[in-house]
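Input sequence (421 aa), recorded before submission:
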Amino acid sequence: MIELEAIRLLDLEDPLNQFRNYFFHQDNEIYLDGNSLGKLPIKVISQIENTVKNEWGKQLIRSWNENWLNLPERLSNKYSKLLNTSPDEILFGESTTVRLYQILYALIQSGKYPNHLITDCLNFPTDHYVLQGLTKQFKNLAFTSVEYGQEIQADIDHLKKVIQKTPGIICLSLVTYKSAFLYPIMELNEFADQRGSIIVWDLSHAVGAVPIDFEKSKTKVALGCTYKYMNGGPGSPAFLYVKNTLLQSLDNPIQGWFGHQNPFDFTPEYTAAQDLKRFNNGTPSVLSMQAVETGVDLILKAGINTIRTKSVKQSEMLIEALKNELSPLEFSLQSPENKSERGSHIAIAHPHAWQICQALISGDDKSPKIIPDFRPPSIIRIGITPLYTCFEDLWWVVYQLKNIVESKSYLKFDKKKSQVT
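Predicted structure, token format:
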């Protein structure tokens, strides 16, 4: 195991080491949730306070014109810089699930693609649920979930054969939620397009962790949440991306007043906005949206390529420690070893994973509390968020995993799982 002094030197030399100061931290606690909720940027505290006390409390309705109506467009502009696209191709609001339903429904209804929905066994359960629900609404719609026989990485050749045989509308997570497998986005976009198909990318575990270039990768549709690596806060709104050349053939299945061409004319007949705003529904969620801006500002300031470089360096160090220190203790790597096929969290399996997670969270007199997360049936996810994850944090997680198993201290924790893990 690498000496702690050498690890601390890596932190001193880290070009992102000052970014940790922009976030709120608990004493004697290491946060490695991977990644269900990013940490709180300190600036957000004063932003929310100002929104509540001044904009809502004092200015009231005037704040819509003075501050709130242009907030979604400010976010779209900043995310467009991160994702290399036009600001009018990015829309904010609603949850990832609602956005996924809207765009899939619109694509099906457009008639541009074969009536076949495709996903795979690595995709997030919500995405499966939405696709399954749509097959109940559209009776002539087929549904296929591609199986690989394991949950670490996709068999790209097998996936291509399915698309070749039964083209249609494909939904994939760019970085998978369990193993962090990273799909070859441009290769699959080109393959699907050549076969009359389209891929809808869920970027929830990717945005803010890996570089994404919509133009270069020839992406046509994508969406994702903002509360993971983008640090937008619990329940922060999702974003939707639709390439302009595709937009005019798509209709929003939820005709809300903010999707109207002139919402404040209050006309009884619905006329859809000519741009992506047609996928707006109701009034924007201002309080949750306010917190999103600081997160993307920090990502842009740090630079996504610098973030990715540190993420790879940290994950490689963690994987090496797993091989050398933890594999004799029944730990096994459940993420791809190839760094080009991996996002920014590491999945580690152990027969007693749930109890080990509880032991990490409890800490002890000599070690900090460590917050990972658990994914059934036996995976501990270690999330690496380079803006605030130190190399020393990862040293401690290896040290504690080894100590907990060798001492069998995990046995004192209940096998029964809590609701949020």
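Checked by second reader. The chain has 15 helices and 13 strands.
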